[in-house]
């Protein structure tokens, strides 16, 4: 079987030929190696060789060795008859190494444990490498070393074998040879086990994703409908919602916003409130099929005019016809307050942190994630000019956001600010938003006078192909972060 470089994007970097893989200390992705081995062996008994540089010897000291290349022999401390190997230093994420005993008279015991630089063994059982023909193949998942394969005389009853998992049966028609120059470690039938282990690796891997969020981390910088509301590091993409997701209510009677001119008490199409609005009775409903965090209003036909403050209130749907107060992070359609209490005075965008209990609900026959604006009690007379839009609202997403390369959960975020001047006036707050699903990290606080910061314990679910981006919900106001690099730790499941 012949596999061309075009079948494997990293072939020119990692492979010396169609059938030989040479792991080094710059391997980018173990999945690519396993995928290649699977393609290269295939059906029909062909063989792919996993070839390491000549092994150099390391000696255990206090249960620790420090790897300096991809293959090592390991000896016991002070030539003891047996020694425990607890930890391997010097590794980097996605790296492969192979180790074997330096002397057949001295046993190396791989001690199972979970944690930084420790060794995770199959079945949570220690592995004893007793002969120079015994070996273990380990993968660095970004935290610990995971034993992907090992072969011992004790395991195989006198013959070499490869235990890629506790259920590996070694009954494939193809072979993989793992060797270093001049010394054959193993040549075994493992096609079935390899397929299984590829799936296990995909399910258990931890990856680091780097996301550049360039430009200034201010709120009004994305130019969404002239006055943006927090999207940073990407050009805004405005998607006008359908008529089903823009509604008006007048005393319990609903209609689409586009058809408001035909309703009693309304004069124009896209009129958000009746000519004589009534507090807590007349409302404007704006929604989308998935949770969102920013909406834009372009070319407002008739801007609102208010003669007092705190005229409007916002709410969000909780399902079952239940509603709760919504906090507006920034309202670029307001000229002064910018808090959602005097919206639609000008073109602009409105943003908020999507509530954790936001739920889809039915409004006038349309199921959506809804927000609604209503006139606060006692404030009906303070809207002296009723706002009229030119179209339905537009949902704002990043046109060139970060594309998730795999499926999993973002558990940790680390931030590095490259601004020339640190922010010292106020904490900066933001969310990492999955614009495809509507899930987000929760509001994170980047404290003042810090160049770097980190957050853990996150549970942001992502699917391969999802678009991620950052929405700033509070800015410093004087010196904003800029050209920020986010590093995400992701527990990958597919």
Molecular structure report:
There is one protein chain. The chain has 494 residues and is mainly beta. It has 3 domains: 5-204, no CATH class; 208-222 and 399-492, Galactose-binding domain-like (Jelly Rolls), CATH 2.60.120.260; 236-398, Jelly Rolls (Sandwich), CATH 2.60.120. It is 7% helix and 39% strand. The chain has 4 helices and 39 strands. The strands form 9 sheets. Strands 19, 20, 21, 24, 25, 28 and 29 form a 7-stranded antiparallel sheet that branches. The radius of gyration is 30 Å and the shape is elongated. The two termini are 27 Å apart. Residues 1-49 and 154-204 have low confidence and may be disordered.
